[in-house]
Amino acid sequence: MSDWQSIPCIERHKEFLEKITAILIDCAFESVSRENPVLRWREPNHLQNIINFNLQEQPRDQDDLLEIVAKIFKYSIKTGHPYFMNQLFSGLDPYGLVGQWLTDILNSSVYTYEVAPVLTLMENTVIKKLLSMFYKDENGSMIGDGLFCPGGSFANGIAINLARYWFRKKIQNNKNISSTNLVLFTSEDAHYSILKWGNVCDIEVVLIKTDEYGRMNINDLKVKILEEQKKGNYTFCTIATAGTTVLGAFDPLIEIADICEQFNMWLHVDAAWGGGLIFSRKHSVLLRGIQRADSILFNAHKLLAVPQQCSLLLTKHKSIFKEAHSKHVPYLFQKDKFYPTDLDVGDKYLQCGRRPDVLKFWFMWQAKGTSGFEKHIDHLMKLSALFKEEVEKRDGFKLVTNPCFINVCFWFIPSTLRIQNSIYDYEKRLHEVAPKLKEKMTKRGSLMINYQSLHEKPNFFRFVIQNSGVDTQDIFYVFDELENLGEST
Amino acid sequence: MSDWQSIPCIERHKEFLEKITAILIDCAFESVSRENPVLRWREPNHLQNIINFNLQEQPRDQDDLLEIVAKIFKYSIKTGHPYFMNQLFSGLDPYGLVGQWLTDILNSSVYTYEVAPVLTLMENTVIKKLLSMFYKDENGSMIGDGLFCPGGSFANGIAINLARYWFRKKIQNNKNISSTNLVLFTSEDAHYSILKWGNVCDIEVVLIKTDEYGRMNINDLKVKILEEQKKGNYTFCTIATAGTTVLGAFDPLIEIADICEQFNMWLHVDAAWGGGLIFSRKHSVLLRGIQRADSILFNAHKLLAVPQQCSLLLTKHKSIFKEAHSKHVPYLFQKDKFYPTDLDVGDKYLQCGRRPDVLKFWFMWQAKGTSGFEKHIDHLMKLSALFKEEVEKRDGFKLVTNPCFINVCFWFIPSTLRIQNSIYDYEKRLHEVAPKLKEKMTKRGSLMINYQSLHEKPNFFRFVIQNSGVDTQDIFYVFDELENLGEST
């Protein structure tokens, strides 16, 4: 079997695959070891000299390829490393990883039972279970439906499209309401994907003010709904956030649900980040009211540390996906099949071919149990509380706002800036601190933590974790490292 | 390190990962072996008894998990098997597989250079190279731009959105043209995702007639454009197909490009299936005219047998993704970074977090060279031509239409049905043949090949291959198996 052929043969590939998997297993442990850097920074031009990215006419041999694998690993960011706190994902779950590797071997697409029998039943199981958890359906019967989506942004987009479908159908079955006259509401701290997908759906998005904690201001919501109605627009949907990206705020779901009920609006809850809390008896209180949502977005690859990507869009409207999306395509969803075609789930999706994202999640769930996810979350919440306490305790650290979730936003204030009133251009100088520290930590490879400005606030750091391999000592390490880098500014 | 924690530890997980990877490597070879069945059919209820899908409170132990992995593999479809000819993807490329496994270890998301330095440069390299191939840019300079998308449907959706953006901007910068007045055209044999995403973008899709080979009828396109213009609608976009799903037809790109030029329309070419031909000097002639497209969709996971999924949307309009999609989000795309932020590609996407699809493709390209992809395609085209010849030669087989690409659509006609005129309800009885054969082959596990009806035509089979591990003997096997199953109907 030649290398241009697209299946493996034992003579040519067995040894190669064995060598590669041995390397990959080593990589898994190296990438999470505190003895190694979280990254090895190289300027783009430099990196292009280290790795020859060019695509050639002729093949490279297997020894070359082994070398390339090692280099790719070496210069990639170790997102599973305890000091990677840069995004709303991290960790390298060993069971999740196995789930991914198995998914790759199956190389499947989930649209029909015929092509993906195991994966179809797995998806149904996970969706049913999550519906019962989010919608508190004690009988565990399938009260709604769900979709696996390639990321949370996409899921928000589908939710907007569903809300419009529902609204048009509801308003005297009037399918002719122009998108130009539809308006949806979300907070100014909501995820930017709502603006992007508002554009795609051609629907105006009105931003609602947030309070000092980053929560949607309910009065402003009411005022703006009435304003739009006065203009003659249809106010069809509100998108609340359970865990905003920067501050980790939870919009007041119960009050928003009341308003949606009053004004006949679809309520979508973007719980991409906060949704995982549903697994914790102690902390799921932050999601109170979520069962009133018409649709819920939940990213298992965020708080639960499932590998990238695993996003779910859940809805209580059992048949709306099929109604809104199906095109009854005869070449894929034949009705003269010999098995029950309700298991051919593909037609309820906006995708056709679809990489299976369920297996890694399901496999982790088997390996940890529901109780394992709960321990994972409770551990993360405990460390975040500790982080917050430390910010309050230590000189030179200041909270941006009082957090209720994982996100702890804070300023590091170098000693030269600590007496606020006496310093000219204080805010401007504080604004410059975080980028400088970020550059230093990146070049040193010692820590990855994100910074940003928000509204009128100067640049600040955002602490977040999803990796429950992080421990108390790591928390102290972050403070020490920031002080260390910061004082040498 | 406990199992609920989200990073691996050597003591607890090294042996487990080694056992799993040994199993997975065995699976890779087993799944493509002709000695094993392509599937082991089980009814849904039966399969649920074999695998306990339920999600439990408590964890399962590692031995249980090893057993589960083996079962999942056993009852999943072997999409890499030479007798899997059911979809527009197949094969199990060993280098693509390694690329996936490495991607899983990196567990990254491509939006900033900071978080994905290697993957960002890799994406830029592949996009640049493909632009130079499709747009025949001899200098190899980046004349346009590209996006990696989670599947071709999504890419078609983005193309529609881009076309609208471009049109609104062009028409005197009038951003207020309502979507209700926008109309796009595609053929009745085009992919159903265009209808689905027309809905999402809230744009009407007018279907153009096809000829006997499945190609768009140019006269009908002109007539319908004029009709819509008379109604006062804006005819802003035509979507041509290079390789339709069922018949494998290529719309006449040059004539359609002329019409688009004449009427000031955006031309999108859905080359999800046919696009891979660009790698073959001999067969890329089928794509003649594609360089005139404003945007091109190309699925590397189809004809090139890259693992699921690897879809690219290319455009000749260099800055349109950024213009149409960017929201300049301060928490991710900070402008006060210490490195050039043009490498933070995320803001040109409609997604935020995004699983890297480039590595497997890039790695395969390194392993095979451009010349390897060419050999792969030329082999597939040769086998398809052989398949067509055999259909013409053999009693009981009949072409649905004369094919020009990989797809060979044909009827198997059991001997009891061979004298057409003398049989009452001939078409109805022929229509029932394919589903019956499909049931038999599925239950026997001997072959997977798809059937469908199209327009007025009764059910027929569609032969397709993307797996260049398939050989001449396999082609004869398909005929023998169909005859064998068919005559016992």
Characterization of the model:
Two copies of one chain form a homodimer. Chain A is of the alpha/beta class and 489 residues long. Chain A has a domain at 109-355: 3-Layer(aba) Sandwich (Aspartate Aminotransferase, domain 2), CATH 3.40.640.10. Chain A has 13 helices and twelve strands. Chain A has helices at 10-31, 44-50, 62-75, 94-106, 117-134, 152-170, 193-201, 218-230, 253-262, 320-325, 358-393, 426-444, 472-487, and strands spanning 84-85, 145-149, 182-187, 204-208, 234-241, 266-270, 295-299, 311-315, 397-399, 408-412, 448-454, 457-463. In chain A, strands 2-8-7-6-5-3-4 form a seven-stranded mixed sheet, with helices on both faces. In chain A, strands 1-11-12-10-9 form a five-stranded mixed sheet, with helices on one face. The mean pLDDT of chain A is 95. At the A-B interface, helix 1, helix 2, helix 3, helix 4 and helix 5 of A face helix 1, helix 2, helix 3, helix 4 and helix 5 of B.
What are the salient characteristics of this protein?
homodimer; 41% helix; 13 helices; 12 strands; alpha/beta; seven-stranded mixed β-sheet
Classify the helix fraction of chain A into a percent range. Answer: 40-55%
Category from helices, strands and their pairing of chain A: alpha/beta
* CATH homologous superfamily assignment of the domain at 109-355 in chain A: Type I PLP-dependent aspartate aminotransferase-like (Major domain)
Order of helices and strands of chain A: HHHEHHEHEHEHEHEEEHHEEHEEH
Keywords (chains A, B): Decarboxylase, Lyase, Pyridoxal phosphate
GO molecular function (chains A, B): carboxy-lyase activity; pyridoxal phosphate binding
Modified residues (N6-(pyridoxal phosphate)lysine) (chains A, B): 302
Protein name (chains A, B): Cysteine sulfinic acid decarboxylase
